[in-house]
Structures are given as C-alpha cells and as structure tokens.
Sequence to fold (227 residues):
Amino acid sequence: MTMVKMVAALAAAGLAATAQADVSNYDDLTEGSQGTAMTYKGISYRDVNNVGGVFPDGSTFTAGDLGNLLIVEDATWFYLDFPAWGSSPNTLTFGTSYVPGPNLTVGPLATAWMDLPSLSSAASVDMAFYENGPWGGIMFHLDAVKDGAVVASDTLTISDLGGRDNITTDSLSVSGAEFDSLHIYATFGAEYSAPRLMIDNLDITPVPAPATAGLLGLAGLGLRRRR
Fold:
C-alpha cells in the first residue's frame, strides 16, 4: 500500500469511527434501580425530577413527590404489543419503583439531564408514554444544549381526546447544531409536569474529531500530488 493510500484509508477509518451513531438500549444492564445518577455508554444521567410542577387537572407536585431514581425496567410484555419499538427487553424509566420480571411500570418524568462524552450533532430517543385521560395536553421536550445554551429542540404534545388513558409510542430528535448535553422534560403551560414515560434506543451521533479532518486533508494533498 502506498503512503497516499494508507493515509486515505486511515482518514476514512477515522471518520467512520468518530461519526458513527451510538445507541443506548439498556439491554445489557440488570433490571432495577440505578440510583439517582448513572453513566452508561459514556453518557451521564443526572438531576431526575428535581422540580415541582402541575398536572392538567390543576393538582400540583413537589420535587420530592415523584422520586428521582433512574430505573432499568424489563418490559418484555410491552414488546409483545409494540414489537417495532425500541429494543427488547429493557427500557429506562424514572421515579421510585418498578415491577420485577417481564411486567413493567411506566414511571413519572418531569426532567432529566444527559451529559454526553463528546460533542454531538444529532440525537433521537424512542418514547413510550400514556396519552389522553389525565395526561392530555402535557408537552414533552428534548433540548440539545451546548455550554448551557439551548441550540436545538423538539417537542411532542400528548393527545387530549379524553376518556381513559392508553399507552402509545413516539420519538423526539434534535440535529443541526453541535451540543454537549441533552435535557428531556415535560411541561403543562408554563410549568413543569410529570407524565409517565419510558425511553429506549437513545441514539447519539458524535461530531468527527478534528484530527480526522487533518488526515483527510493530508490524503487529499497526497492524491493531488500523485495526479
């Protein structure tokens, strides 16, 4: 292999390694509480449900009412009804409790932060939550944040068709800017709220490292000289 070809191959390999998306599916974790903070696949999860807020019926909650644990939930039975969602069997939920085994609990989420191991350019997350009933009108948010400032965001408003609540699935995604953390949270009007939520397949696309650009430049220079 010539030097030019070697540099080009290294550059291509470096680009693939640094720009490849990394998916957190939680399936290699043991079911149960992970504590109030955890690190998984380099992502640091923190500050769960440390806010007060309001529900659509006007009732309120404090920062201590919801529980602030990160919980890995074996949701095997959920996947029987939603086989195309997420990645069986585990999900991540929030609050204080879970049901051991293949049955599941969909815990409350008002807010949670995820600090990323490197600058990223895109992220998406699969969501399972209750709609209608007492949850209608609550809005989920996913903010991409860099140095404390929101640089991209996505929202989803929970269906408000009345009647009994039912479980459904959807996703949120952000892209178009570089960011170092994600903030997932829920609001009703101008205040925090706390719908029930499980997440899975948190998909993060890191920004290619600067060194990769240098290698690509060397490869291009070498190719031009060869011609």
The two ends are 17 Å apart (CA to CA). The domain at 21-208 is CATH 2.60.120 (Jelly Rolls).
